[in-house]
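re: the backbone from monday

yeah here it is again, tokenized this time
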């Protein structure tokens, strides 16, 4: 089945992105910043965005779900046009950076269950 192409369709570069820009700025402000150390060096030693090596005590951004790390400028540039990890494509959402799984203290009005 072939669908007709609409002449009124806008590409993403033509759509105003004021709201999206605010969300992306908010997301970048909520990402976890870590200092690079020898322990992190056993996991990652290169930024996969720029392929540059990390230096000891350098501030890096750690992604909330997958825990991959990147240079601050590199990941901010990436997140300007994407909402995923550049390495594994894991979703990066604002809600995933605010709460932790299983944390019931964030919702005091929710019913408490007692263990059986």
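seq for it, each position gets an aa:
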């Amino acid at each position: 089945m072939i669908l007709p192409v609409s002449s009124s369709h806008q590409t993403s570069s033509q759509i105003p992105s004021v709201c999206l820009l605010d969300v992306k700025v908010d997301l970048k402000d909520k990402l976890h910043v870590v200092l690079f150390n020898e322990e992190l060096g056993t996991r990652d030693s290169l930024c996969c965005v720029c392929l540059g090596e990390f230096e000891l005590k350098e501030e890096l951004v750690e992604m909330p779900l997958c825990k991959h790390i990147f240079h601050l400028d590199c990941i901010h540039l990436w997140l300007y046009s994407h909402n995923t990890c550049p390495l594994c494509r894991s979703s990066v959402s604002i809600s995933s950076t605010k709460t932790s799984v299983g944390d019931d203290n964030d919702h005091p009005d929710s019913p408490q269950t007692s263990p059986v």
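The domain at 31-97 is CATH 3.30.40.10 (Herpes Virus-1). The longest strand covers residues 32-35.
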